[in-house]
Write a structure and sequence with these properties.
With 315 residues, the chain is of the alpha/beta class. The protein has twelve helices and twelve strands. The strands form two sheets. Strands 8-7-6-9-10-11-12 form a seven-stranded parallel beta sheet, with helices on both faces. A five-stranded parallel beta sheet has the order 2-1-3-4-5, with helices on both faces. Helix 1 packs parallel to helix 12 and helix 5 crosses helix 8. The longest helix has 20 residues.
C-alpha cells in the first residue's frame, strides 16, 4: 500500500512519517504542497492521501485512479470535496481530538501574548529600547484574572483550557450545539456570549451556519476593549471588519492562527496592526500531535487493507 503526504514537512515530520510507515508496512512519500509535478507523479499509484491544508479537489482525485482513502491529519474536512470523494468511492476520515492539546496550548499562548502585548515589547527590547516604551502601551496590557472568557463552541480544546483559565481567575461562559454536562463554566446564547466576553475564543467547525458568524454586527456587540482569539477557521470571521475594529481601537487586540485566505495576502491590513498576534496556522503542529496523527492514519491504512471499519470515517 502507498500513501502520499501533501505538505511542506519538516525533517522531523518526514522521519516520523517514515518510521511509522515502515512499522505499518506502508510505502510513504512526502510531497511539498507547491510541487504539483511531483504530486502528480506520486499520487498516480497511491492508495491513500494524507491531507493537511491544501484543498483536495475532484481534479486532484482524478489524478489518482487507485485512491481509496483521504485521511485528514486534523479535524476540519471543509478543504475536501466530499461529494467528489463520495462519487468516486473514496473514503474520507478525520481524527477529532488528536490535536486538541496542541491547539489548547496555542490558544492560551495567543490569549496571554495579546493581553500582555508581547509582540510590541519583544522587538523593542531587541532594538535596545525596551526600557523606554510608549507609556500609552503600558495602559493597554492586562491580566487574565477577573476577565470573562467566552468560548464559541465547547469541544476538546475548550474542555482543556477552561480549567486552566478558571485557575488563573477567569470566569468561563460558552455556547455549544449540545449539552455539556461536565463543562467548566456557564452555558449561554450567542448574544450573551458576545456582550459579556472580555476574551472571545472561537472553536466552532466551519459550516454553512457558522461561516461569517463573527460578522461586522457581531463585532459591534462585543465589549469595547474585547480580545478575539481564533484557532479554528478563518472564515468564521469577517476579516475586513475585524481589521477596522482593531485599527479604530474598538477592540483591544486579536490573536489569530487562521485566516480566510491562506497564505495571508501580504497586503492584508491585519498584518500591519500592532495589537494583533499572528501565527501561520500552526496551532496544531507539534511533534506530539504528528505522532498521534500518523498513528491514527496508518491504523486506518491497515483497516482499509483488512476491510475493517475506518476510525472517524466522514465519507
Amino acid at each position: 500500500m502507498k500513501a502520499v503526504l501533501q505538505y511542506r514537512a519538516s525533517a522531523g515530520f518526514i522521519a516520523e512519517l517514515a518510521r511509522q510507515g515502515a512499522a505499518a508496512g506502508v510505502q510513504v512519500a512526502a510531497v511539498d504542497e507547491t510541487d504539483e509535478a511531483d504530486f502528480a507523479r506520486q499520487i498516480a499509484d497511491a492508495d491513500a492521501l494524507l491531507h493537511v491544508l491544501k484543498p483536495v479537489t475532484a481534479a486532484m482525485m482524478d489524478q489518482a485512479p487507485k485512491l481509496r482513502l483521504i485521511q485528514k491529519l486534523g479535524v476540519g474536512v471543509n478543504t475536501i470535496d466530499l461529494e467528489a470523494a463520495r462519487a468516486r468511492g473514496v473514503a474520507v476520515a478525520n481524527m477529532p481530538g488528536a490535536n486538541s492539546q496542541a491547539v489548547a496550548e496555542m490558544t492560551l499562548a495567543l490569549m496571554l501574548a495579546t493581553l500582555r502585548r508581547l509582540t510590541y515589547f519583544d522587538p523593542l527590547v531587541r532594538a535596545g529600547e525596551g526600557w523606554r516604551p510608549d507609556l500609552a502601551v503600558l495602559d493597554t496590557v492586562g491580566e487574565m484574572a477577573g476577565r470573562t472568557v467566552g468560548f464559541l463552541g465547547y469541544g476538546g480544546v475548550p474542555s482543556r483550557l477552561a480549567p486552566a483559565l478558571k485557575a488563573l481567575g477567569a470566569e468561563i461562559i460558552y455556547t455549544a450545539r449540545s449539552p455539556k454536562p461536565h463543562a467548566v463554566g456557564t452555558a449561554c446564547g450567542l448574544d450573551e456570549l458576545l456582550s459579556r466576553a472580555d476574551i472571545l475564543s472561537l472553536h466552532a467547525p466551519l459550516t454553512d451556519e457558522t461561516r461569517g458568524i463573527i460578522s461586522r454586527e457581531a463585532l459591534q456587540r462585543l465589549k469595547r476593549d474585547a480580545i478575539l482569539i481564533n484557532t479554528a477557521r478563518g472564515e468564521l470571521v469577517d476579516q475586513a471588519a475585524l481589521a477596522k475594529a482593531l485599527a479604530s481601537g474598538r477592540l483591544r487586540g486579536a490573536g489569530l492562527d487562521v485566516f480566510a485566505g491562506e497564505p495571508v495576502d501580504p497586503s492584508d491590513p491585519l498584518l500591519r496592526l500592532p495589537n494583533v498576534v499572528l501565527a501561520p496556522h500552526v496551532a496544531w503542529l507539534t511533534p506530539e500531535t504528528l505522532a498521534r496523527s500518523l498513528e491514527i492514519a496508518f491504523d486506518n491504512c491497515r483497516r482499509l487493507v483488512a476491510g475493517e471499519p475506518l476510525r472517524n470515517q466522514v465519507v
